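Re: your question from the hallway

Yes, I did run it. Sequences:
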Amino acid sequence: MSYLKAESIGQALTLLKESAPESRLIAGGTDLFLQEFPERLIDIGSIEELKWIEEKEGFLEVGAGVTHTIAGGSDLISDKATALAEACLQVGSPQVRNIGTLGGNVMNAAPAADAAVALVALGAVAVLMDKDKNIRRVNVDQLYAGYNCSAVDCSSELLLKFMIESCKSGEGSAFVRFAARRALALPMVNAAVRVKIKNGIISEIYLVAAPVKPAPTRLLKTEELLLGKSACEETWLKAEKSAAGEAEVRGSLLRCSADYRKHLVGILVSRAIQVAALRAIGGKEEG
Amino acid sequence: MPIITENITREKKTETDFQSPEVWTKVTGKAVYGNDFKLPGMLYGKILRSPHPHARIKKINLGSVEAMPGVYASLTGAELPERPYGIVFDDELPLAAELVRYIGDEVAAVAAVDNETASKAVEAINVDYEMLPAVFSPREALKPDAPQLHEKFKDNLAWERNLLRGDSDKAFREADVIVENTFTIPSVHSTYLEPTVCVAADDPYNGLIIHTAVQSPDAVRVIIAKALELPLSKVRIVGPVMGGGFGGRVYGNLKLYMIASLLAIKTGRPVKMQLTREEEFLVGRPMIAAEMHLKMGFKNDGTILAREADIVTDNGAYSAQAPWVSKTLSERNDSVYHIPNIKTRVRLAYTNKVPTGQYRAYGNQAANFATESLLDMGAVKLGIDPLKLRLKNCVKTGDTTVHGLKIKSCALAECLKAAAEEIGWYDRKKGYGYGISAAIHASGSLVFDKNFRGAAALARLELDGRISIFSGEQDYGQGAHATFTLIASRVLGISPEMITVYSRDTLSSPHSIGALGNRQTTIGGKAVQMAAKRLRELIVLTAADMLEDPVVMEKGTLRSASDRIVELPLVAYHYHSLTCGLSLIGEGRYVPEPSEYDETGYGNIAVTYSFAAHGAVVEVDKTTGAITVHKIVAAHDSGKIINQISAIGQVFGGTTQGLGMSCYEGYLFNKGEVANASLADYRIPTSLDVPDITPIFIENEDPEGPYGAKGLGEIVQIPVLGAVANAVADAAGVRVTDLPITAEKVYQALSGWECE
Ligand SMILES: Cc1cc2nc3c(=O)[nH]c(=O)nc-3n(C[C@H](O)[C@H](O)[C@H](O)COP(=O)(O)OP(=O)(O)OC[C@H]3O[C@@H](n4cnc5c(N)ncnc54)[C@H](O)[C@@H]3O)c2cc1C
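Structure:
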């Protein structure tokens, strides 16, 4: 096995280009270490260009190499894409957050990866570069090919960063999750919401609950139902009912039954919307 | 984290805080654990395990495994004499001969230059199986038409006990209030940090030496010598430092030891074998699962009249200590309160699942969950405050309980009151649930071997004036060495720094029953006290002989009537020269009174008994069923506390493990296969899940234990289960009777769903 360390994006791409298909990118390695190792690993963990967080022309740009700890602790992200910071702070444990990256979280293509769920709800766009330095931009929810299967070939393409439209006044986002214990447990359900409220009325909403589909997926029916509704208790109840009804979930011996998961989707979606709405109207949060 | 409630313990006792210097070797990474241990020329062994829950081995095709580069030997059951061994029953073989009875059963083994080669070799072995029907539910297993696991045990009944005290039928007819329910608990693993590991080495001079950390090395040595037909004096166990045991390692992993030994004998080289974490879950002998149907009858004033129990415990494929655990589970708890009429039936059933064993409190935790839950249900029906109901019925000093246990010291009522006060029982906050529970546990069990009830220890004066203590009782992190050091230090009047305890070599330590039944402090500590006392006498005699004058010993020095002073090294040298090489050795033995049993098992079973009451405060989110445990108060009567800092450590650790059993842990099976054989899926509480734990020690002197002390290690886990279950029921308004109490189960109960 060979282990190569890339110092720059350019070098990573050159290494990808010269290699046979079995080589693989490794960032934090927290997902990769649990899988069969390929013959050749290209470590992108020390590429500084992948670790930037900045705001440009109304867009937040977050590098694929940013760790969960850094993202969770970033004032910029907490302010402009709150759901993402909240999600990152709930991943695994401090050790996992210190080394695991946002890029890895999405590219590993788990159906309920916390950061990925938040990114989809925030409407994030992934920026990828292939071996020949061609750039493409894809919505994060389009990066999935199936359960735990990414649509991106990590032996030929590098995920550079995510672009998220910054939350402006009147907008808010939130992330919530429910798991069997307070750390080191994959969620039974997680949910993220981005909402825009104008004159007390929901004028835009992105709503994701997982694990529902192979990719973190928006609950479009519930979104539609909520559009134009006023931000009040009655609406949250509707959201709960609709989301639980809309989500087709599976049960598992290890996590929970399908019925319970369905119930949780409703509860968590409703909670996430309430918090996001409160943030949108600049309200005070409890606790 | 709050440590001790000042008003209850009254005095801070930092003078009794002592940490063995070994602690520092652990925190600085210098301690040698089993996995660190290496010998020159050492090979590594791996085991081929059955992928089927029940099958007949038609043929094991070794192929060219032995010819693979790096492979030194293979081993199958066919090469071994069919000589079953066991702890209670002889129902196991080192390697399966004809039948495999669970997924994980040992079929063949290989020794090779490294783990990778051994694993590859094991995978290359081909086994031809004939599938047999399997049974996974113990109730199903007990039915006459169920698939049979062992010829010797008809209807899969491994063990049964029917126990009658008083006249429970009559009592139930006279009862004003009756409650009954079924409670279940899954198998739980003690999840020690270090997966079991051993290095076996054999040569004609030393014989067989197994380097492994195990709670009862002498017992293991006896079983292995017998099973492998080796002379007992040529089987020795030497222990590296143990990475946790919690009762799950009383016998370590006997099969691993035997297979490593057989491979070492076959190859003439040391062989190291370590279970992976997954194997630890598959074959690591978790505590039995139990289904307990209980019924209790009361008078209107809250007096408990009777208890009936129909209990089925799940043995898995082989027995280990499961009969003993089933026995404790089914009866120990009856002695917390006065219950004059008892009728209990307990059956242990073989199933095609992971063989079981023991964890910390010998099943008394499971019984606590069931009984204390039922007691609260009774309290509701009676309209009596649960605390008052317990105080009305609980045992006290001087009592002989329904099963004949002699209670020599008991502060259970004080524990109940202290725990209740500390959680705010009478000053409840709205929106929170409060629960309380009480426990009794043997402190120094006498019944493992009726003829060998106590312990022995040696205390040797070294030439430099230091003291070496030799004991067969093991320190595996619970602090036995520190406790023994403090006891010897008090007897001899010298500082603990001058004393070292050695326990991990069966060649040099007195034989011991082992670290189980809360024997360490009460029995092992008492033997150390006797040894130190004898050494003190010998030192005084020798010094008097030396000075030709009567002497007294104070603070480690000897003073004669004529005021001459000698230090310990001089006394040591004097004796040394006098005898041309001997040392002063105090032999100590503690032989407790025999426990007298009638044919129904009525009689005292332990030197003394520890008591505890725990209180829990929780919150339940009714929309999801999510539980937050805010606080657990652990009030204990473990007599006089010898080493406060390690006692507190026991309370923190044991309470956390109790919480794990209450709300998090349990084996999940899918057709006999363990579905959660990893630390990711077998969820023990993380530090974020652990609530505030407040230890309270009610320090009454016990007449029997050394310096009035009683055991603590096992009992700390017991009352957690009842307290948490009752607090959750109080908060949610519904009761979960199936452990672990998870959010989903609480929500199901709240919404009236039917569990599948
Ligand atoms: C104990 C533990 C607990 C965990 N808990 C959680 C949890 O609670 N929630 C959660 O969401 N996840 C959890 N995870 C999963 C994991 O930590 C995260 O998904 C993490 O974000 C992965 O990032 P990484 O940098 O470690 O990825 P890696 O393992 O390095 O890579 C994962 C995949 O992404 C590819 N890849 C990585 N970076 C790029 C890039 N820039 N361009 C192209 N391809 C790339 C790799 O080739 C690989 O296929 C846990 C993992 C562990 C071990």
